[in-house]
Amino acid sequence: MHREHATSHVGRYGRRRTKLDNRLRTPKVGAPPPGANESRMKLDRRFCIAPMMDWTDRHCRFFHRLLTRRALIYTEMITSGAVLHGDRARLLAYDMAEHPVALQLGSCDPWQLEQCARIAEDFGYDEVNLNIGCPSERVQEGRFGACLMAEPALVGDCVAAMTAAVDLPITVKCRIGIDDQDPEEALEALTCAGERAGVAALIVHARKAWLEGLSPRENRDIPPLDYARVYRLKAAHPGLCVVLNGGIADLDQALAHCARLDGVMMGRAAYQEPWRLLAVDPVLFDEPARFSSAKSAAEALIPYIERELARGTRLHAVARHVLGLFRGVPGARAFRRHLATEAIKPTAGADTFRAALALIADVDARSVAAA
Ligand SMILES: Cc1cc2nc3c(=O)[nH]c(=O)nc-3n(C[C@H](O)[C@H](O)[C@H](O)COP(=O)(O)O)c2cc1C
């Protein structure tokens, strides 16, 4: 009995959980309803919205959730150090409406990741994802992100530490390789290490990252996409959930990839043209769209805006994510201009957003059918 109790408090690395570790845990704040644990393990990853730093903050995620019930939504990357030593309540805050929502972590430290996974579970996140794709200099200095493509054994240790600590699915978002790595070998080695450690899904940005000479932005465009490598990965690992990311521009492309893989992850197209998300539920899940038009979805955001303004949030912090919603629709430019000039004023309120919406033609070309 005594031994059982002790075992449950000894981490995979043989390190007994201390009182400090227990203090690092938080009371459950966003725990999903009973029964959610089983459904979490079966999270549907057919359509995911990518983690994007400074873009997919909690306001953006709430807005995206209005456009699709079924997409799996990811937070921006948060480093394990920030979770453990920063303003955790603010960094990990999210709205219950966001479920299913995955927390993306950046780190190469199995022990820190183990603690963070526990904290994520306490906060009620549905998945923890490890970032093995970011090529920024700052991330390289911390020896995590894309440079971990060269250290599959360490990635395995990181994943194993988290899978042993929590019931949440632990996933990895990676590249097909870095620098002069051979993508056949590099991705295979990472996949095998992940599988051995119990990874629940691999999300593959289907291009290499070049760690020297390219900025993070260039690393999202210049290294060529290689979807065939990801298809081969799935064929070689049929039991592993493989999600494709990179350059997916519309739902036709998403559907085509879904015929060969377990799912897709859309980044820039989802953020810059969020109206496309209205068609995710009908096209990929055969379920009705939440709203028949982008305008009605935007109107449904107003109560959230009012709530956030009452908490001291500036209108711009929410409205900036909506700027692309009406791209190509009559009135879209006036809508954007109005928000760009008015929503940034400290006194801007929900009426500013309503006034911008009034500039959009009622016949909304961005209907579900258009995506
Ligand atoms: C502004 C921005 C920030 C990003 N931040 C992250 C991040 O925090 N974590 C991550 O794994 N990828 C990040 N990415 C990469 C995206 O998740 C995605 O892999 C990349 O944009 C390719 O997908 P796409 O072609 O559909 O945009 C970011 C991309 C953008 C545009």
Structure description:
With about 375 residues, this protein is an alpha/beta fold. It has helices at about 1-5, 20-25, 35-40, 60-65, 80-85, 90, 110-125, 135-140, 150-165, 185-195, 225-235, 250-260, 270, 280-285, 295-300, 300-310, 315-320, 330-340, 350-355; strands at about 45-50, 70-80, 100-105, 125-130, 170-175, 200-205, 240-245, 265. Strands 1-2-3-4-5-6-7-8 form an eight-stranded parallel β-barrel, surrounded by six helices. α7 (about 110-125) runs parallel beside α9 and α18 packs antiparallel against α19 (about 350-355). The protein is globular. The structure holds flavin mononucleotide. Flavin mononucleotide binds near residues 51, 52, 173 and 205.
Characteristic terms for this protein:
alpha/beta, binds flavin mononucleotide, 371 residues, globular
Give helix % range. Answer: 40-55%
Instruction: Report the count of strand segments.
Output: 8
Q: What is the average per-residue confidence, as pLDDT, rounded to a whole number?
A: 90
Strand content: 5-15%
Low-confidence stretches: 1-24, 26-33
What profile does the largest beta sheet have? 8 strands, parallel, barrel
Counting H and I runs of at least 4 residues, what is the number of helices?
A: 19
Radius of gyration: 21 Å
Shape: globular
